[in-house]
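Design a sequence for this backbone.
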């Protein structure tokens, strides 16, 4: 039960972080792009696939809600496994 609650909290925090960075950094500062790393998937053990799904879904939702935003979004990965996950999600 504790683990499920911690995981749910981590999902919400990751979603909020991505959305906040997209809005705060890009719109307010007039930047043309942003990069996200694989947050908490290393030592902290958050599942890579789940983290990537949250990141991609949140970025797509944010871009959908801000259609005039012309941004370059980079998902910075460290492992080949991470790259494969993002390629699969982004091609869908």
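Sequence:
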């Amino acid at each position: 039960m504790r683990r499920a609650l911690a995981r749910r909290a981590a999902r919400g925090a990751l979603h909020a972080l991505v959305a906040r960075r997209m809005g705060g950094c890009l719109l307010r500062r007039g930047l043309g792009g942003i990069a996200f790393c694989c947050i908490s998937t290393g030592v902290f053990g958050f599942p890579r696939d789940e983290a990537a799904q949250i990141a991609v879904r949140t970025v797509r939702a944010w871009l959908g809600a801000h259609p005039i935003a012309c941004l370059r979004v980079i998902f910075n990965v460290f492992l080949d496994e991470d790259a494969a996950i993002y390629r699969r999600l982004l091609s869908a």
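The mean pLDDT is 77.
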